[in-house]
Amino acid sequence: MSVAVKTNEYKTSLINNRRYLGNKYKLLPFITGVVNDECPDITSIADIFAGTGAVSSAFTDKVIITNDLMYSNYICNYAWFGAEEYDPQIIIDCVVRYNALTDLEDNYMTDNFADTYFSRDDCAKIGYIREDIEVLYKKGDINTRERAILITSLLYAMDKIANTCGHYDAYRKGVEFDKSLELYVPMANRQNNPNNQCFNMDSNELVKNIEADLVYIDPPYNSRQYCDAYHLLENVARREKLVGLLVA
After folding, report:
1. Is residue 244 part of a domain?
2. What is this structure's pTM?
3. Which of 79, 112, 114, 125 has the CB geometry, 3.0–4.6 Å to 152, for a possible disulfide?
4. Could you tell me if residue 245 is inside a domain?
């Protein structure tokens, strides 16, 4: 393995820089317009099928409660909206270091996913980075929100180059991998509202235990669970090392 950092330059990402089924980012002007017209005095909002958190991102001046059954969405929402403070320099240093990695050994990702959704080299990088994030967290070098932000950076980077048509039901066979994994620094607010909460649970159970002035309800638009379409991102986020379905 070679780790040679040639530059401290890095790119940044925003919450909407991700492909996702049913993303409402383009509808935010309409949604916020309705809220401002009909309930201008609210101070808290609960987004109980939050997905990427795009809708919640329009209400950062309020107390935000997010929830999603998928852990990969929960961890991203915690990165963007979590109440815990974090050190941006830690994120920058890790992203720069990860982007400089080369000549990595085989790992779980290469053993199971090489040259499917990602090239062998990118799989090696994904596997190494995910393990390193966990090592840093267990050593106490990063806090819970810094861990979430780094995982979010990895998931966004994976989604940007994935050999798919937007989700992970299948990969395209026989293609050339012309893009390489590059992590960006998520531009998450350093100090969110201290009363923000992020959940990863069944919304039917959650609503029995939370209160909010406004509840935004945007459930999946069909009977399929979204985890079927995003099983690989879920796998990496959870670090469960379960072999995903490979459908050629």
Report:
1. no
2. 0.90
3. 79
4. no
